[in-house]
């Protein structure tokens, strides 16, 4: 009888331990799942970018400012503007950092998307470059101008030529404007379209080249020093200000909005100034400034 009682006691104790272990394991599992779902810790914000902007956002992700803000960033490099915007539309990245306001408007209009800008970052001036002339005053009749083959950079380049006094455009010229919209071309400039990433390589082949600063820097050029004319920050160039972009439904998310503040943090701005020789001119304005 005592032997049977001992066996029963052993079975009861063993069963209790096993059930207790199962209960403990289930608790850990639920807690881990809860954290994964974001109830106990914030999820990383995925930022898609390319080229120099990718470098900047990798720095921001590791910055003291990001840590102090309690923001965790994952930075993914995606080559190509349309690909970056498509990745944002499809939710593969939460935010993208690479484009100007004009580029976003052009993309939304052509694709039927409604991506939203939520912060301004900088103006990266486009410049007019030449190995043939030293200033816009030296531009003579019939020179050949290389212009981007994509709509947003082509229209931007034409506006730059107008600012330099070389052509005249209509008052309603917009981000999808082309050379066919020119209403006065007193120098009889001839335009040839190029892949704008090749700009630095064709300087010797044409008379004038319109090059965005990211591409210029990759080609060893500094827009502030090497161009014969470049953009300044004015109401006329505000459509060329770079922005942070997300899905429309995320544009008022508190954590996502903090990314604009992180970009303009003093530590981050000192890094950008040093790395890019002042060619990413900071712009810290409300998005409504670009919408006016």
UniProtKB/TrEMBL annotation:
Keywords: Lipoprotein, Membrane, Palmitate, Signal. Residues 1-20 form the signal peptide. Pfam families: Lipoprotein_9. It is a lipid-anchor. It is found in: Membrane. Coiled coil: none annotated. GO terms for cellular component: membrane. Belongs to the NlpA lipoprotein family. This is D-methionine transport system substrate-binding protein. It comes from Carnobacterium viridans.
């Amino acid at each position: 009888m005592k032997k049977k009682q001992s066996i029963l006691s052993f079975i009861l104790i063993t069963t209790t331990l096993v059930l207790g272990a199962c209960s403990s394991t289930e608790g850990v599992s639920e807690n881990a799942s809860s954290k994964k779902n974001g109830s106990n810790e914030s999820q990383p914000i995925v930022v898609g970018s390319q080229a120099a902007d990718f470098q900047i956002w990798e720095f921001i992700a590791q910055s003291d400012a990001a840590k102090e803000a309690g923001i965790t960033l994952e930075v993914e490099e995606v080559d190509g503007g349309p690909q970056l915007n498509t990745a944002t539309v499809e939710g593969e990245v939460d935010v993208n950092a690479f484009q100007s306001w004009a580029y976003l408007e052009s993309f939304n209009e052509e694709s039927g998307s409604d991506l939203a800008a939520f912060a301004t970052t900088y103006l990266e001036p486009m410049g007019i470059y030449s190995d043939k002339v030293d200033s816009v005053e030296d531009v003579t009749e019939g020179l050949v101008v290389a212009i981007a083959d994509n709509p947003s950079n082509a229209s931007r380049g034409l506006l730059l030529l107008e600012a330099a006094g070389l052509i005249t455009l209509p008052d309603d010229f917009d981000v999808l404007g082309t050379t066919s919209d020119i209403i006065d071309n007193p120098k009889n400039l001839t335009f040839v379209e190029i892949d704008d990433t090749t700009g630095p390589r064709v300087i010797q082949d044409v008379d004038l080249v319109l090059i965005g600063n990211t591409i210029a820097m990759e080609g060893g050029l500094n827009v502030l020093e090497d161009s014969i004319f470049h953009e300044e920050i004015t109401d006329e160039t505000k459509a060329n200000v770079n922005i942070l972009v997300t899905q429309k439904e995320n544009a008022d998310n508190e954590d996502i909005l903090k990314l604009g503040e992180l970009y303009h943090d003093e530590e981050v701005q000192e890094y950008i100034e040093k790395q890019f020789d002042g060619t990413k001119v900071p712009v810290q304005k409300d998005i409504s400034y670009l919408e006016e």
